[in-house]
Specification:
- The chain is an alpha+beta fold.
- The protein has three domains: 84 residues, no CATH class; 64 residues, no CATH class; 94 residues, Chitinase A, domain 3 (Roll).
- The chain contains ten helices and six strands; from the N terminus they run αββαααααβααβαββα.
- Helix 2 crosses helix 4 and helix 6 packs across helix 10.
Length: 282
């Protein structure tokens, strides 16, 4: 093993020594390749890598360096194959790409501080600080097709049968497997007749039958609780998204309010014209 390691180490060292070191430190202007006299620079590679999705940025640097450089060389060769004369579509598309890129950069710069910890905390406080406690209910139900069947099951329960067992045997919805348990829910989560029955139900007492569009229900409310405001950590991403969305809206309004914008009368233009590529050649 030691001889093999020594051989590999020597081979690696010789390979390193065979590569001449650059005399100058790399910069964005450092030329990495040329295609028919057009330079591909280190700056080109850096900017291309920066625009990649995060999953690609996670690749090893040596893979990205080679892969991006190869791609840029191929792109430059393909670009040159188009010649110097651009079609109207090409020119408009390039202008659009420039507009989109610079608009995105302006957006990033304009809202870069919008989702700071301080801003998120402030938005969280404004949203939840004065939130009134909301009552939640833990209930179970048995859902059947007819009032008579619901009454018959209710009689069985009042005679000593288990609500959960009756739900498993008779309820026609997915909660049957859990003994009819619907978990915790607040007002607005259930249809109105069901909700009204839940609110009025004494704890631990089966009520019903209650008719809804789904059928006939027997309902058992086991507990209630006051729903507290969620912890910041639990809603951080949601708050950050809301703050960013508001910041973007504010930025767009501020920028467009400063701009001199005139709009032509488009009433006489058929919207379907946006599909007519032949107009680009007229």
């Amino acid at each position: 093993m030691s001889k093999l390691y020594g051989f590999c180490a020597a081979l690696a060292l010789s390979a390193v020594l065979a590569i001449p070191a650059r005399a100058d430190a790399p910069s964005a202007a450092t030329v990495l390749a040329t295609v028919n006299g057009v330079n591909i620079t280190l700056g080109d590679v850096i900017v291309t890598r920066d625009a990649l999705p995060d999953q690609y940025k996670a690749l090893p640097d040596d893979q990205l360096f080679k892969g991006i450089l190869d791609q840029l060389v191929q792109q430059e060769a393909l670009k040159q194959s188009m010649g110097e004369t651009l079609s109207a579509k090409d020119t408009i598309a390039l202008d659009g790409l420039k507009r989109s890129y610079l608009a995105n950069e302006a957006m990033i710069a304009g809202v870069k501080d919008a989702t700071s910890d301080t801003a998120i905390q402030k938005a969280y406080d404004a949203k939840y600080k004065d939130m009134a406690p909301a009552l939640e209910y833990h209930a179970a139900h048995i859902l059947v097709d007819s009032e008579d069947k619901a009454k018959a099951i209710l009689a069985e329960i009042e005679g000593g049968k288990s609500f959960a067992d009756e739900a498993k045997a008779n309820s026609k919805d997915g909660s049957a497997a859990n003994g009819g348990d619907l978990g915790w829910f607040g007002l607005g989560a259930m249809v109105k007749p069901f909700e009204d029955a839940v609110v009025a139900a004494p704890l631990g007492k089966v009520v019903g039958p209650v008719k809804t569009d789904f059928g006939w229900h027997l309902i058992l409310v086991s507990e209630t609780r006051n729903k507290a405001a969620p912890a910041l950590a639990d809603v951080h991403d949601q708050i950050a998204s809301e703050v960013q969305k508001a910041a973007i809206a504010d930025l767009l309004k501020a920028i467009t309010d400063k701009a001199t914008i005139t709009r032509a009368d488009t009433a006489g233009i058929d919207p379907a014209v946006i599909k007519d590529l032949t107009l680009l050649n007229k």
